[in-house]
Amino acid sequence: MRTKSYALGLALALSLPWLAHAEDPAPGPANTTIDLKYWVEFAKQGNPAAQYGLGYRYANGQGVEQDDSQAVDWYRKSAEQGNAQAQYALAYMYASGRGVDTDLKQANDWYLRAAQNGNADAQYAIGYSYANGRAMAVDNENAVTWYQKSAAQGQAQAQYALGYMYANGLGVHQDEAIALVWYRKAADQGRPDAQYAIGYMYDNGQGAEEDQEQAVAWYKKAGNQGVAQGLYAVGYAYANGKGVTRNDAEAYSWYMKAAIKGRADAQYAVGYSLANGIGVARDYRQALQWYRKAADQGRPDAQYAIGYLYANGQGVKTDDDSAVRWYRKAAEQGDAQGQYALAYMYAGGRGVGRDYGKAFDWCQKAASQGHADAQYALGYMYENGQGTTADKSTAASWYRKAADQNNSQGEYALAYLYYQGAGVPKDYGQTAALFRKAADQGDPRAEYGLGYLYYNGYGVPKDSKTAADWFNKAAAKGLPEAQHGLSYMEANGDGPIKDLGPLGQGAADKKDSGVSTGWLLFHLLMVLVP
Questions:
Q1: Is the separation of the CB atoms in 318 and 26 below 8 Å?
Q2: Residue 415: which of 236, 248, 407, 74 has the closest Cα?
Q3: How is 39-84 classified by DSSP, letter by letter?
Q4: Is the dihedral of CA 276, 279, 283, 285 positive or negative?
Q5: 115 Cβ partners below 8 Å, 6+ apart?
Q6: How far is the C-alpha of 48 from the C-alpha of 67, rounded, in Å?
Q7: Helix segments in 421-522, DSSP class H
Q8: Which of 201, 369, 411, 467 is the most exposed place for a label (fewest CB within 10 A)?
Q9: What is the pTM of this model?
Q10: CA distance 403 to 410
């Protein structure tokens, strides 16, 4: 059974497309068909085109020894005569720290001069500086103005950037349809960031009708150009059957391509696939390696996953100290799974001294984030006074939160409080309804409890046959109380079953065996690896 899509509790890394690359395009080439000696001669005579051309040759080592200082000198001579190409090139050298100290203010001054002289790359560059506060105050309206001028000349980066501004309402009224138009212009020139952005918009129905097939097609275009975000998106599509037929092996293949490029969510996805044998043979050792790569980039879900492998001896020797260390990394980043797991280790004294107070604190953090197992566990701690003052009313409220998420343990525990009238009014009808929900999920204690209610007519019509059916389900799973109940029925005919109490809370759920606490029943070590 899969506990969650192995897109991984991962925020769909189909996140908003990134803003255009910070790197400004390199200066355009000069005419290199003209013999170098003529470039030198004309440049010395003050010809601005030749001065630019000579600067370009020095910058790129074409026919001369590469020399950025010489390049800057010749670019400056040309730029000061108003040559827009040279003005852009000089700005580029200042921005890159080539031949001069990096000076973004000087770069912007020359970008602006070149932009005012109609250079499309400079118009994009100064727009980028305005949009991102590069050595100037952020001014999105000015950014859009310059992006529009550049985009109108067909500059692909500016077209992408203009699409981004419209998509996010930066400096213009948000208009996703217009954004899509500009993204497509850039994509048609082969820009992979624009291709990804179009895929994202089709994926989410932004600027066009949602179309998963189109989304995948555009993601593939970006991915095939090596964009890790696109590669991951295609893997996610195959893993979840979005726009393509679900295919775990294909998903793994695309995830691996993105993972090799260093994308952390893809590295986690590869680890998850290997740990669970999804689309690839199960291999805990390799899973650990990929989880580690993602964890080293700070992903808390990967940190939790490593802790899980150490706690369960999967791919490594069981090592509770290491498990606690990795769980703590995840927990301290606010990861609910990590917080819940750390609570588990404190409650059981695994890798740390047993400390119900710390178990309670971490469990509370996870429960407050909506982690259903943690909500059940927190209810158990309130019910039994572990790490806090016993309070069955508060226990019931936490059990209810878990039950509202269809957590079978929460359903069972709340049902039992209704049966007892502890923390809530005694109500056999509620008991029966909650037992049924948990029993329908296969909880043997709830199956037994429901049989008990049917046999005695508590909250449901008295019905020995239905009682026997539920007892049989629980007995088949090895629950002693259910086996006892069946034996009692056989021995006593239709007489009422004596209170075998406490309704399946028996051997499986004792307070403390000296090894673990009752709430350790939660499925931390029984669920699919994260």
A1: no
A2: 407
A3: HHHHHHTT-HHHHHHHHHHHHHTSSS---HHHHHHHHHHHHTTT-H
A4: negative
A5: 122, 123, 125, 126, 146, 149, 150
A6: 19
A7: 428-440, 444-456, 464-476, 480-492
A8: 369
A9: 0.83
A10: 5
How far apart are alpha carbons 258 and 266 in whole angstroms?
6
DSSP of 272-329: HHHHHTSSS---HHHHHHHHHHHHHTT-HHHHHHHHHHHHHTSSS---HHHHHHHHHH
Query: String of b and e for 488-514 (b: at least 16 CB within 10 Å)?
Result: bbeeeeeeebeebeebbbbeebeeeee
Q: Which of 46, 115, 57, 127 is nearest to 85 (CA)?
A: 115
Which amino acid is present at 213?
A: E
Both tokens of residue 121?
């790359």
Q: Which residues contact 415 (CB under 8 A, 6 or more apart)?
A: 430, 431, 432, 433, 434, 435, 438, 446, 449
Token pair of 25 as six digits: 């395009």
Instruction: Find out whether 48 and 78 touch, Cβ atoms under 8 Å.
Output: yes
Instruction: Encode pLDDT of 380-395 as tens digits.
Output: 999 999 999 999 999 9
User: What is the C-alpha to C-alpha distance for residues 522 and 196, in angstroms, rounded to an integer?
Assistant: 41
Torsions phi, psi for 249 (to 5 deg): -65, -40
Joined tokens for residue 8: 């991984």
pLDDT 10s digits, 388-429: 999 999 999 999 999 999 999 999 999 999 999 999 999 999
Residue 121 CA to residue 127 CA, distance in Å, equals 10
Residue 236 in contact with residue 13, Cβ under 8 Å? yes
CA dist., res. 142 & res. 81, Å (int): 26
Place of tokens 């989880």: 291
Angle of CA points 140, 100, 129, to nearest 5°: 5
